[in-house]
Amino acid sequence: MGRGKKIVIELDNVWKSYAEGNVNALKGISLKVHESDFVSIIGPSGSGKSTCMNMIGLLDVPTKGKILLDGKDVSKLSENELARLRGKKVGFIFQQFNLIPTLTALENVLLPVMFQDQSDHSRERAMAILNKVGLGDRMNHRPSQMSGGEQQRTAIARALINDPEIVLADEPTGNLDSKTGKGIMDLLVELHEKEGKTLVVITHDPRVADYAHQVINIIDGQIVHDHGMEKSFVWKNK
User: Fold this and answer.
1) Most CB contacts within 10 A, which of 38, 80, 102, 228?
2) Could you give the angle at the alpha carbon of 113 between the alpha carbons of 112 and 114, nearest 5°?
3) Sign (positive/negative) of CA torsion 201, 203, 207, 209?
């Protein structure tokens, strides 16, 4: 997968250490994510997959190694510089939804642009995205008035508001039942296929990983299995 397409983000021999170097969360991770790829990073709790996600999403910097974004080493950038890049390049979807309870769905979706662009265009775009994810009739509801699936769809809409090149989803079905989780994964697949978004999903669930074109298996801070193949996009009920 990815042959002939540009490399959007690359981790080159990335190490991440904590506790003054006594704990290595990542041990020489190298991987490439190409434009419009659908990649899943899978591993058990404590495997290092969340730390790897933080590297891909520019939320953290490596102890050793390089992070290349569009071929440029961003490993040594300041936090402010990384924050600007994240705002332009990456849309985040979290397991806990991370919605502001006092805001409506529409207001939550507008949060990433609140301090950048208060134009009518942003509001129109947010409404269009909420319609796209099936929440056209729920945009004035607060999180407490929505189901878990509706809250996650709101979070997906928020991730798309800045039209990011990479959508990074951390356990996007982790707090949802199987039926709702399948609906969320179907929505992510549709966004990937119709809009060509580069999609990286972090998960411990093989059913979720099976949606991806490429699966990267991380255990004890190292890639132990990395293969690319076309998947069937079928939610496999155990």
Assistant:
1) 38
2) 100
3) positive
| DSSP codes joined into one string, the chain | --TTSPEEEEEEEEEEEETTTTEEEEEEEEEEEETT-EEEEE--TTSSHHHHHHHHTTSS--SEEEEEETTEE-TT--HHHHHHHHHHHEEEE-TT----TTS-HHHHHHGGGTTT--SHHHHHHHHHHHHHTT-TTTTT--GGGS-HHHHHHHHHHHHHTT--SEEEEESTTTTS-HHHHHHHHHHHHHHHHHH--EEEEEES-HHHHTTSSEEEEEETTEEEEEEE----------
Which parts of the chain sit beneath pLDDT 50? 226-238
So what's the pLDDT on residue 225? Answer: 62
| The predicted structure's pLDDT at residue 223 | 94
Report d(CA 81, CA 148) in Å as an integer. Answer: 34
pLDDT for res 231: 44
CA 186 to chain centre: 15
pLDDT at residue 2 in the model: 53
What angle in degrees, to the nearest 10, is found between the helix axes of 148-160 and 120-132?
140
Looking at CATH, the fold of the domain delimited by 37-48+79-228 is given as: Rossmann fold (3.40.50)
The confidence score (pLDDT) of residue 58 equals 92
- Asked if 41 and 208 touch (Cβ cutoff 8 Å), the reply is no
Cα separation, 183 vs 159, in Å, equals 17
Q: What is the pLDDT of residue 84?
A: 87
